[in-house]
Amino acid sequence: MDYRYLVIFVIYMVTVASSGAQDQTFEKYESLEDLAEAIYSETDLQIDYSTLFDDLYYYYENPINLNAASYDQLKKLYILSDFQIQCLLDYVEENGAIVSIYELPYIYGFSQKEARFLAPLISLEPIKTSGPVKLKDSYKYGQHEIILRAQRVLEQQKGYLPVSDSILQINPNTNRYLGDPYKLYVRYKYNLKKRIYFGLTAEKDAGEEFFKGYNKSNFDFCSAHFQINNTGVFKKIQIGDYHLQFGQGLTLWSGLASGKSAYVLNIEKRAEGIKSYVSADENIFFRGAATTLSAGSFDITLFYSRKKRDANIIDTIRPDFYEFSTFQNTGYHRTPYENYDEKVIKESAYGANITFRRDYWSIGTTFVHYEFGGELRESERVYNKFDFSGSQVTNIGIDYRANIKNISLFGEATSGNSALGIINGAVVFINNLVSFSAFYRSYQKDFFTHYGNALSENSYDANENGFYVGTEIQPFRYWKISAYSDIYKFPWLKYNVSAPSMGTDFFFRLDYTGGNNFESYLRINYEREYENNNEEDTLIAKPFEVNNFNIRIHMSYSLSSNFQLRNRVELNRINRGNESPDNGYLIYQDLIYGAKKLPLTVYFRYALFDTDSYYSRIYAYENDLLYAYSIPALYFKGVRTYIMLKYSVSRHADIWMKYTRTTYAGRDITGSGLNEIGGNIKSEIKVQLRVKF
Asked: What does the DSSP assignment read for 599-625?
C-alpha cells in the first residue's frame, strides 16, 4: 500500500482545521440532503431510508410547531431521545411557549447540536387550534408529489450478453438476465395536513422484464397505501401496504430500525404503530388493513395482512403448498431461476396491540400470528438445529417505557417458537455534560420472531446474549466524546462458526464543532469475533479469532455560504487468525457548491481506496438522489468519483443527475457472476425528476 497520499492528505486536513474555529450559531442547513447527511451518514448499513427521508422531508417543508408538538410528532424527527422529548414537553408546559431557537440548549438534556439539527424542521409559532379537515379542502390544501427515476450501469455486463437462438432452444432457462439494464422507479404521494395519505410506488430492477414476459402488464413491483388519521375514535385507518412497529422491535417491527451507531444514547426505539409503506422493498411489509382506536389512555391496534413472498422451494407437498428452505428478501427477479422463487409462498398475519399510556410511562402487549402456505424446513446442518420449522407461528410480547426524573427505562419480553427473548435498557442524563445508556439482551437459541427487528449483533434475533453500555460527554465547549462497549455471546453454533463463541465491539468518537463553517471528528472502532478456518484439513472446522480495527478522521469546512469542503481519511486493519494482516485505506475529497444566481447545487467526490482484499473493504456514504441512498463497499485498489447536479426548474419541479465512475487498478474484470464487466471500469448514471404541487 502507498501511504504517501495519506501523509499529504493529513497535512492538508490539519491546515484546514487550524483556520476553522468560529462561534457557534444556529443557521439552517442549506438543503434536506445536508441535514440527512448530518443525521445518518455515520451508519455503514445498507438500509432503505425512504421512510426516514419521507418524514424529514415533510417537516422540512412544513416545520413542526415546537410549542404545540405532541410526543408522536416529535419522535418522527429521529433526532431526539424519549427523555429529551419529555424534557421539551415539560419545559413548554412549565415555562410557556419557546420564543427563540437559542432557548433550546438551555433545556435540560439538550445541546447546541440538537438545536442546529432541529432548526430546519421546526417553527416557534403561538399555539393554534386546527379545525377538522373537510373534503372540499382536499385539493386546495393537499400536497402532491411525483417522482420519476431511471438509472443504469453503462458498461456491458455478462448477464446481458446475447445468447444464440440454438442455445435458447436447448435450454430456455439459460441463466441470464431477461430484461434490459435500466432500473426504473415511479412514485406518487398525496398528503393533506398529515391527516390523509395516499401513495403509489412502482419499481423495476435492472435485468427485470418490463411489460413483457413475467411482467406482461406492469412493473415487477407495485405498492399502494391509503391512510386517514384522527377521525373520531380512530387515530389511524390504513388500507393497502403498511409497516407495523411496536415496543422495542422484539415482537413486531418492520421497516427502518435503529441499531448501534455514533448516536450512542439512541438505543431506544420509537414505535409508531401503523405506518404507511413508502419503500420499494418487495417482501418486508404488510398488505391488507389495520386500524388504531383511542379509548382514553388506551390505544388499540388491530391488523390483518395477506400477501405472497419469495422463497426457495424444496418440494411440492400439494397444490399451492410447498416445502421451502428460506424466505428470499433480495426482490430480484431477473433470471428464470429467480422468477421460479417469486411470490410462491402465501404469508398471512393477524394480531393486535394494546398500549396503555400515561404522562411518564406506558405499557403494551402485542399478539401476532403467522400462517405460511408451506412448511419452512431449515437445512439439517448442526448450526440450524434449533431454528424454527413449520407452517405457522405465534409471537406474544409485553413492552414498557418509563421516565423517572432524569432516567428513561424501556424493555420488552417476547415468546416465540416456545422460547423467550428479553431486552431491558436505560438512558441516564446526569446533567447537560454527561449521559449514559445501557442495554441488555437475551435471545434463546431457539427463539424466533418472523418480523422481529430488535438491537442485536446477529442478522436475526436469536442465539445471543449481550450487554451494551454507552456514554456521551461534553468536557469543553465545542467538544464531545461518544463511546460504547458491546460484549456479546452466541450460546450455540452459527453460520461459519462451528462452536459457541463470543465477541466484543468498542467504539470511540471525538467531535469538535467550532462553528457552522467547521466540524470534525475522530472515530475509532474495534471489533473481535470468531470465524471458521475452512482451509484446515479436519472433519470439523476450528474457529479462529478475527480482529477488525478501524480509524477515521473526517472534516467539513465551509469556505463561504455556498461552497463547502468535506474530507475523510479512513484506515482498516483485519487480523484473521494466523494469516497476515489485511489492510485498507480510503481518502476522499468532497466539494459541494450552491450557485448564488442559479437554483443549482453541485456535489463532487474524488476518492482513492486501496485494500488488500474484500475483507478489509471500507464503506462510504454518498450524497444521492432524493429518497435514494448509496453506501458502496470499496475494496481492492482504485479511484471512485461522482458528480451530482440538482437543479430547481421552478418551485414545483426539481431535476437530479448523478454520474458515478469507479476505476480499478490492475484488474481485467470488474464484478462477478452475471454482473461481471470486461475491463477495469464500472460507471453508472442516475436521473430523477420530482414534481410537486
From this structure: SEEEEEEEEEEEESSGGG-EE--B--S
Arithmetic mean of pLDDT, 84-93: 82
Measured in Å, how far apart are the chain's first and last C-alpha atoms? 53
How many of the other CB atoms lie within 10 Å of CB of 212? 10
Nine-digit cell at 481? 466524546
d(CA 13, CA 7): 10
Strand blocks (E) in 69-142: 122-123
In Å, what is the CA distance from 441 to each residue of 366, 411, 463, 466? 19, 9, 11, 5
Task: Kindly give, in sequence order, each residue whose CB lies less than 8 Å from that of residue 179, ignoring residues fewer than 6 positions away.
Answer: 204, 206, 207, 208, 209, 210, 213, 334
CB 14 within 8 A of CB 35: no
DSSP-derived pairing of the beta strands 321-327 and 361-376: parallel
CA distances in angstroms from 659 to 390, 435, 602, 643, listed in the order given: 47, 43, 12, 6
Distance, in Å, from the CA atom of 461 to the CA atom of 443, rounded to the nearest integer, reads: 6
Reduced to 3 states (helix: H, G, I; strand: E, B; else coil), residue 91 is helix
Q: Which of 463, 545, 440 is nearest to 503 (CA)?
A: 545
Angstrom distance (rounded) from CA 502 to CA 464: 9
540: pLDDT confidence band, cut at 50, 70 and 90? low
Q: What average pLDDT does the chain have?
A: 85
SS3 (DSSP) at 169: helix
Burial 578-611 (b: 16+ CB within 10 A, else e): eeeebbbbbbbbbebebeeeeeebebebebbbbb
Burial of 508 (0-12, 13-18, 19+ CB in 10 A): middle
What's the CA gap between 310 and 344, in Å, rounded? 6
Q: Name the more confident of 11 and 64.
A: 64
Q: Return the sign of the alpha-carbon dihedral for residues 446, 447, 448, 451.
A: negative
* Polymer length of the chain: 693
User: Residues 508, 511, 516, CA angle at the centre, nearest 5°?
Assistant: 160
At 662, give phi and psi (nearest 5°). Answer: -120, 125
| C-alpha cell belonging to residue 366 | 402485542
pTM over 0.90: no
